[in-house]
Specification:
By secondary structure, the chain is of the alpha+beta class. 25% of the residues lie in helices and 32% in strands. Strands 3-19-18-20-15-14-13 form a seven-stranded mixed beta sheet. The longest helix is centred in the last third of the chain and has 23 residues. The chain starts with a helix and ends in a 5-residue tail after the last strand. The chain binds 3-(2-carboxyethyl)benzoic acid.
């Protein structure tokens, strides 16, 4: 038993280092069940997979978050989750067609904030948001804006920072299906990181919607075992707050990678170690499946064709939250060090 899990009170637990959090990106044979873990995201073939086509590799991939102790799946409201006492992974899922997207987003976040508070893991590190028809105008506003309104309201009500210090995140559009919010939380606060090339998303001007998106560009956190993790939010071809290279998927991919490089540089200064581009575990989202060849060539040139980043990258077909955006890249990396925040 680790020192952390033998310590009795919540207060003292917050002071000791967490047991290690481990990540594995697993290639699954069709129909196979993923191994024991806190939970994760299945893409491609199989039950429970995200409703987004996996363009590469073939088959199915499971992104598994693994704790240091056995964890049973539990339920609260619309949330399924598991925790080892130090780390908590969950999925909030609501069919928004019945109640509307803004109330659905609000309820998903309200429920998951209750889950993390009740389980001593009230620090959110990373959100992965998926919703059908993200760019569709419905009932007088774009569905992404409705989602932003419900999300921000839930953050404010639960007294989680909706601005400086917000968790890292991504938000993508699927062909169909319920609203799904995957989340990862822990006992200690991450260090939020912004991109000097971009306006913070929570400070976007009103032109992008009356309620801003709630995320930081990246989050750096001590994940135990003498390691820290950098979570880089969905990153697109945006400079300042403006979409650049409209209609040019090659340049959009290059610009997204420049933004990731800028975030890596700020994070490396905070972390006190290099964060090599070739060590990133990336997910690339493409609006158009036909762009795979171009995007992959640009990506592999940037990260190194033989790097772990190129070998492990997955490519999904999804809608990005601005109609002019053709590509978005999210990533995380584990590097040595600890106790950053
Ligand atoms: C952007 O930079 C592109 O709403 O949670 C990226 C990451 C984007 C997260 C979110 C949206 C979100 O604004 C879109």
């Amino acid at each position: 038993m680790s020192v952390a899990s033998s310590t009795s009170t919540t207060t003292s637990r917050a002071l000791v280092a967490p047991g290690p959090l481990v990540f594995r990106r697993l290639r699954l044979p069709q129909g196979a069940t993923p191994p024991a873990s806190l939970g994760g995201r299945r893409v491609g073939a199989g039950a429970g997979a995200l409703h987004a086509a996996l363009l590469a590799p073939e088959g199915a991939v499971f992104d598994a978050w693994i704790g240091h102790a056995p964890a049973e799946e539990r339920r609260h409201g619309c949330v399924r989750f598991a925790t080892d006492g130090d780390w908590l992974h969950g999925i909030a899922e609501i069919d928004d067609r019945a109640i509307g997207l803004q109330p659905a987003a609000h309820r998903a976040y309200a429920d998951l904030f209750e889950v993390v508070a009740a389980n001593g893991c009230s620090n959110l590190l990373r959100f992965w948001n998926y919703l059908a028809d993200i760019n569709l105008e419905a009932d007088g506003s774009e569905r992404y804006r409705q989602f932003n309104a419900g999300r921000q309201q839930a953050f404010i009500e639960a007294r989680h920072s909706a601005f400086e210090g917000a968790p890292a995140a991504c938000a993508l559009g699927l062909r169909d299906g319920a609203l799904r919010v995957y989340f990862l939380a822990g006992r200690r606060p991450p260090l939020a990181i912004e991109n000097p090339r971009q306006v913070s998303a929570y400070r976007y001007p009103d032109a992008y919607g009356p309620r801003s998106p709630t995320f930081s560009r990246a989050a750096l956190v001590d994940v135990g075992g003498g390691r820290q993790a950098l979570f880089i939010s969905g990153t697109a071809s945006i400079v300042g707050h403006t979409t650049v290279h409209v209609g040019d998927v090659r340049r959009q991919t290059e610009e997204s990678l420049l933004n990731i490089a800028a975030v890596r540089q700020v994070a490396a200064e905070r972390a006190g170690v290099e964060i090599p581009v070739g060590a990133l575990v990336c997910t690339v989202y493409l609006r158009r499946a036909a762009d795979l060849g171009v995007v992959r060539a640009v990506f592999e040139r940037a990260v190194g064709a033989t790097s772990p980043a190129a070998r492990d990258c997955i490519y999904l077909q999804a809608d990005i939250c601005r109609t002019e955006l053709l590509v978005e890249i999210e990533a995380h990396a584990f590097v040595p060090g600890g106790a950053v925040a």
